[in-house]
Amino acid sequence: MMVVVAYDVNTETTAGKRRLRNVAKTCMKYGQRVQNSVFECSVTPADYLTLINEVMKIMDQEKDSLRLYKLGTKYSEKIEYYGVQRHLPVDDVMMI
Amino acid sequence: MMVVVAYDVNTETTAGKRRLRNVAKTCMKYGQRVQNSVFECSVTPADYLTLINEVMKIMDQEKDSLRLYKLGTKYSEKIEYYGVQRHLPVDDVMMI
């Protein structure tokens, strides 16, 4: 199934930048980085739990926000996009 | 239906900050700001088109990225969240 992972972190700090970079590395095992802090991941139900566990180990639960949106298996019509199509590399910590 | 609006913009510039603030104002007519650049909006099919049109008027299509994820009407089980639950005010342009 397709899962959208949105990760909100303060990247004004070095630690925040590092957490976002590590979350990106984890998510990009399963999909692509479509915005600075948004990832579209194709996962099995087992992968999904692994993905959450891995991100939870990285995140600071008192500072960061993780939201997951499950689009199911027939997702192509559920996604629309406009403007720049960025496929951001994992190390890009753009200030948005 | 529930629509997740993800808006990627460079807020290092004053113009970028202004566009994000204006996108937030538009989206918050229909829902809430759950992350710095992610909004969960409850819309009718007509509202959805209006929302897109309004955001398109604000966005710089050569610089910004807009992605929309349609979760349908039965969406409560499609959303999971962890960490900080921010309900960010419209004027908050946090550097993430």
UniProtKB/TrEMBL annotation, chains A, B:
Superkingdom per UniProt: Bacteria
Residues reported in the UniProt entry to bind Mg(2+): 8
EC number from the UniProt entry: 3.1.-.-
Cofactors demanded by this protein: Mg(2+)
Chain segments annotated as coiled-coil in the UniProt record: none
UniProt-recorded Gene Ontology molecular function terms: hydrolase activity; metal ion binding; RNA endonuclease activity
Keywords: Antiviral defense, Endonuclease, Hydrolase, Magnesium, Metal-binding, Nuclease
SUPFAM superfamilies hit by this protein: TTP0101/SSO1404-like
UniProt-listed InterPro entries: CRISPR_associated_Cas2, Virulence_VapD/CRISPR_Cas2
Class of enzymatic activity (EC top level): hydrolase
A Pfam family per the record: CRISPR_Cas2
UniProt GO BP: defense response to virus; maintenance of CRISPR repeat elements
Repressor as UniProt keyword: no
Subunit structure: Homodimer, forms a heterotetramer with a Cas1 homodimer.
Function of the molecule: CRISPR (clustered regularly interspaced short palindromic repeat), is an adaptive immune system that provides protection against mobile genetic elements (viruses, transposable elements and conjugative plasmids). CRISPR clusters contain sequences complementary to antecedent mobile elements and target invading nucleic acids. CRISPR clusters are transcribed and processed into CRISPR RNA (crRNA). Functions as a ssRNA-specific endoribonuclease. Involved in the integration of spacer DNA into the CRISPR cassette.
Protein family: Belongs to the CRISPR-associated endoribonuclease Cas2 protein family.
The name this protein goes by in its record: CRISPR-associated endoribonuclease Cas2
